[in-house]
């Protein structure tokens, strides 16, 4: 794996840690969940053959400290962070953006607010529960997560959250697997666990209450690839992107694996991502 160039960017209320590999047009990778820049390590080197690949730790995560650790988190501010990275790394030139999970929510807001800076967005399973017809059920889930977090702490709350994300009757996640990882992957898991209280307490309630500008997204849907995991059909994070693709009359791309296919199937995920971006390149040149 190639060592990336490391940078620090001051933004409003935080300092972002970002990493850059390769040469070519900018491809900004926005992490989701408790992950940071390292969540894209499995695909970044291959993509760097054709792109300047940048990723980062979102504000408040891992190596991107907040000035005020108690500051309220908003999708709009996280999207502005991504915009500042675009301005730094690709000034005046439209970029390609990939977001997974909560990072996909950031990518969608970035598209609606700065469309002139975006060539293409790939949004993999953004958990936009507010667009779903059964949103009341999911609001109740989020309330249970917050209640569990207050009463019992982050790990029980994480279990409630994970159970709500899966299909009814799906097998639980194998917690033992985290103890059987190679050292580098185990270090990423350790960072992930350290980020869990912040993610559940600050990111989840704000991001999953976010309502996108659906009409604006539809008007920009020629620049948008909505995607989900081949193994996560019917699960909560999968459903909003599938719902929006049907509403917009656009295609829906299935990536290998489930919600975390980026981590569980990195080679196959990266190969398909490259193909999706190549299609965007051809369309941009035509």
UniProtKB/TrEMBL annotation:
Pfam families: Abhydrolase_1 (PF00561). InterPro entries: AB_hydrolase, AB_hydrolase_1, AB_hydrolase_fold. GO terms for molecular function: hydrolase activity. Residues 25-145 form the AB hydrolase-1 domain. Keywords: Hydrolase. This is Hydrolase. It comes from Microbispora siamensis.
């Amino acid at each position: 794996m190639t060592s990336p160039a490391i940078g620090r960017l001051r933004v409003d209320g935080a300092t972002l840690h970002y990493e850059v590999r390769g040469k070519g047009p900018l491809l900004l990778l926005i992490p989701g969940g408790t992950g940071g820049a390292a969540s894209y390590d499995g695909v970044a080197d291959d993509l760097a053959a054709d792109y300047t690949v940048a990723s980062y730790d979102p504000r408040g995560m891992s190596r991107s400290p907040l000035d005020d650790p108690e500051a309220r988190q908003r999708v709009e501010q996280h999207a502005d962070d991504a915009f500042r990275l675009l301005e730094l790394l690709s000034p005046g030139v439209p970029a390609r953006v990939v977001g997974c999970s909560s990072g996909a929510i950031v990518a969608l807001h970035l598209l609606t607010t700065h469309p002139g800076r975006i060539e293409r967005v790939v949004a993999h399973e953004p958990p936009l529960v507010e667009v779903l017809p059964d949103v009341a059920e999911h609001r109740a889930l989020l309330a249970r997560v917050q209640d569990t977090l207050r009463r019992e702490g982050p790990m029980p709350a994480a279990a409630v959250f994970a159970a709500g994300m899966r299909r009814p009757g799906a097998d639980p996640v194998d917690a033992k697997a985290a103890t059987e990882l190679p050292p580098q992957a185990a270090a990423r898991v350790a960072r992930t666990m350290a980020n869990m209280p912040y993610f559940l307490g600050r990111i989840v309630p704000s991001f999953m209450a976010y309502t996108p500008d659906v009409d604006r997204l539809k008007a920009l849907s020629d620049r948008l690839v909505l995607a989900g995991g081949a193994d996560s059909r019917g699960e909560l994070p999968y459903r909003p992107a599938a719902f929006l693709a049907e509403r917009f009359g656009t295609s829906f791309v299935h990536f290998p694996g489930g919600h975390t296919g980026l981590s569980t199937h990195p080679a196959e995920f990266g190969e398909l991502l490259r193909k999706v971006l190549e299609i965007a390149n051809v369309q941009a040149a035509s």
